[in-house]
Design goal:
It is globular and about 70 Å long. It folds into three domains: about 170 residues, Rossmann fold; about 100 residues, no CATH class; about 35 residues, no CATH class. Strand 2, helix 4 and strand 3 form a beta-alpha-beta unit. About 50% of the residues lie in helices and about 15% in strands. Helix 2 crosses helix 3, helix 3 packs across helix 4 and helix 5 packs across helix 10. It has 13 helices and twelve strands. The chain is an alpha/beta fold. InterPro entries: DExx_box_DNA_helicase_dom_sf (IPR013986), DNA_helicase_UvrD/REP (IPR000212), P-loop_NTPase (IPR027417), UvrD-like_ATP-bd (IPR014016). Keywords: ATP-binding, DNA-binding, Helicase, Hydrolase, Nucleotide-binding.
């Protein structure tokens, strides 16, 4: 790509730390910075620098962000820096990318024609129908049978964002039940009651999750989170299919990385796995928005610091955090990724 006046001007305005991030083209790079410190600008200028310094095709660069507005802004910034080549860089949201992959592979993804995203009102109605037509131990109080509708919707959404499919959740609930049966003899009465309540809540939730998915399919609807999980599962189960996309995207950049959930992380890791430790993956985010190392986590075995949680360990909720888990059973898939230790050759703040 020929050097443009706009690019040179934008590059000169960067401080030394920002320039280091922009100039670190090869390998995994993680940039940590607070709000308003130019993270997105660094990411955009870095895309331009990749095209300037290498023979990479614009279409071989993938940049992921969280809203359509942010994607449009990034695209406009890039076009202002490099001209028409900016149109061909793949910039979009995680959901838009997965929606495109699904649409481009209709034989692989059995998505009925006309299937649309479910609305919030439809979610409420579907969950309410499940509650009204079935009996539950804990999630349907006698005097207020629809009391937990919003909590249930939120819990299912969390499960999907964490990449926990119905099958996986069923396995986790079985483990929770088995652990309780083994350990309840040594528990105090209070601890036993609390654990039994947790088990029964998740048994109820599992049934509701299953019926909700059935109703979505019958209605011709899907959750946003379903799209990412479908693609991730397809990638993880078919190496040849994944390789088509791995080879296409030589550089992957992620904005606001602290907001990625497990399903999105699995998507990014899958797309970059072809190159292993040499993956050209660049993430920018705000570590102050992550759970700090001394955050208390509820686990089946009691309260622990987040830094003491092992990969694959079942956790229940993060205490004192902005996003509480409502005593929901979730699987902590990558503690290091959540603690900002996943990527390696450069970690520095952007002043």
């Amino acid at each position: 790509m020929p050097v443009t006046v706009a690019f040179e001007s934008a590059y000169r305005k960067l401080n030394p730390t920002q320039k280091k991030a922009v100039d670190s083209i090869e390998g995994p790079v993680l940039v940590l910075a607070g709000p308003g410190t130019g993270k997105t600008q660094v990411l955009t200028v870095r895309i331009a620098n990749i095209l300037k310094e290498t023979d990479t095709e614009p279409s071989s660069i993938l940049a992921l962000t969280y809203t359509d507005a942010a994607a449009r802004e990034m695209k406009e910034r890039l076009i202002s820096l490099i001209g028409q080549d900016g149109y061909y860089v793949k910039i979009g949201t995680f959901h838009a990318l997965c929606n495109e992959i699904i649409a481009d592979n209709p034989d692989r993804f059995a998505r009925p024609a006309g299937m649309q995203n479910v609305t919030e009102l439809e979610r409420v109605n579907l969950i309410s129908e499940v509650l009204e037509k079935n009996s539950f131990k804990l999630l349907k109080p006698v005097n207020a049978p629809l009391m937990y509708v919003k909590d249930i919707i939120g819990s299912i959404s969390i499960l999907k964002r964490e990449g926990i499919t119905l099958k996986k959740f069923s396995e986790l609930v079985s483990i929770l039940k088995d652990e309780f049966e083994i350990e309840k003899g040594g528990m105090s009465k209070t601890a036993r009651t609390e654990r039994e309540t947790l088990v029964n809540k998740n048994i109820d939730l599992l049934f509701i999750y299953e019926k909700y998915q059935e109703k979505l399919k019958a209605l011709g609807r899907l959750d946003f989170e379903d799209m990412i999980n479908w693609v991730v599962e397809a990638f993880e189960n078919d190496a040849d299919f994944l390789q088509q996309y791995e080879e296409n995207f030589q550089y992957i950049l992620v904005d606001e990385y602290q907001d990625t959930n497990s399903a999105q992380n699995r998507l990014v890791f899958a797309l970059s796995s072809f190159w292993g430790e040499r993956s050209n993956i660049f993430c920018v985010g705000d570590n102050n928005q992550c759970l700090p190392g001394d955050t208390k986590i509820n686990t089946a075995g009691g309260e622990k610091n987040i830094k003491d949680i092992q990969i694959g360990e079942s956790v229940l909720s993060a205490l004192h955090s902005t996003e509480r888990r409502n005593q929901l059973l979730v699987q902590l898939s990558d503690v290091q990724g959540r603690s900002w230790l996943a990527f390696g050759n450069y970690q520095g703040s952007v002043d």
